[in-house]
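Appendix B. One record, verbatim.
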Amino acid sequence: MKRSNIGLMSVTVFPVRLLLVSFFMLLAWPFAFTASLGRSEFAIEPQSWWRRFVDLCLRVIMRAMWFCGGFHWIKVKGERAAPSEVPILTVAPHSSYFDAIPVTMTMCSIVTKLESRSIPVWGTLISYIRPVFVFRSDQDSRRKTVEEIKRRAQSEGKWPQIMIFPEGTCTNRSSLILFKAGAFIPGLPVQPVVLRYPNKLDTVTWTWQGTRSTKPTDVSSRFKILWLTLCQPHNPMEIEYLPIYTPSNEEKENPALFANNVRKLMAKALEVPLTDLSFDDREISLSQGPLCIYDYCSLLEFNQLVCRLGLRAGTRGKILEEQAKRAMKLQGDRLGLEDFAQFLNLPVTDTLTEVHSLFDQHGDGQIDIRHFVIALSTVHRPSKSMETLKLAFKMYESEENGDILEEDLTTILEIMLGVRDVELSGLFLSLDRPDKEKITYDELHHFIEQHPHFVQKYLDFKDHPRKFCIGRPKSCNGQNHNKDD
């Protein structure tokens, strides 16, 4: 669409469409609010005549809303299975808030974060479809969510179908990332559903361009997407219901295999490649905080390996603390592959061997387990770098005064930031401390609080931003490498 056309549509069509879309959304609110009164989030609800009437009214209103937004004709291929036959619909790719269209057309339940319920107007509409809410503040949220999905899926159609976006995050639709296992743990048949937006000008996707990118744009850019979409004369959309996928006995026992096979089927229908990135990888690449990951290449590789070992999903703060205590008792003793497997209570496999080799500094088959614990904490809570730093200090600090050596802090920061050849001379020269080669956690924490641009100003490492180039680390082992290699 040319700029002149956008300008014309912005002052003619856009305000009218925005007004109509807002009107129909507000019109839907009293219906959803009334139908939600006195409802239990956990009890099966019989469909009385008046609730069926409200459901029909909401479908008509929401379809009118999307029509006013430019989605005039929505092409539907295939046939949606009955809830008694298939309790779960797996939908991909997930790229936009316009992916809500198939939800409003079917009034299926969805899996969404609890905060969605507080969104004005839209939150009431979300509550009406009886979603499975995710309590992110609850450490057991993932387990409880899976249990609720399983409970509803096994109701033999008494609960509404659950429409799940198994990618768990928005992508740019150029590939399918790894599916989360929640939809596949019940081991029941699922119906894959694929979405297409065949417009030449993509105005619906809210992620950066690039096959592997899953980074969302900011709020202003999201409004820009809404603006450009409402300026389009027509926004085509296709919804295709693929044949029901019934898992084999092996897939029932292995939800990850089940999820991956469904993903392959959907990728083939979409004619897009697969990529081994996941929702957790997205969190790593978008890490925040004073020690946010600078170069996440090696940590993404490590994260994918620990996910394959089943370590990522089961990792909690208490488990990390326990591993750190056990690492402290080793006092820096290095572990071979067999001892490493025993430390993690896992069998020796090819994947475990790969993880072990990532931390093999000297190529002698021995690793410092503290490096592994730091890396695991980093990928488990990428936006809580100070908690990881505190955990690392506990493993290295002296019993006398709780300080650690400069060389140990160098190793810690190399792993946490995903960089090489960290130099701390700028930091230690700025510290008013008698012993210039040691530092405590409290001293470093206070210094970072006083200097929010700590990494940029007081650290130096290979391919630092000030050197105007971007490097890629080759391993997570915290080892200093030859700068000339």
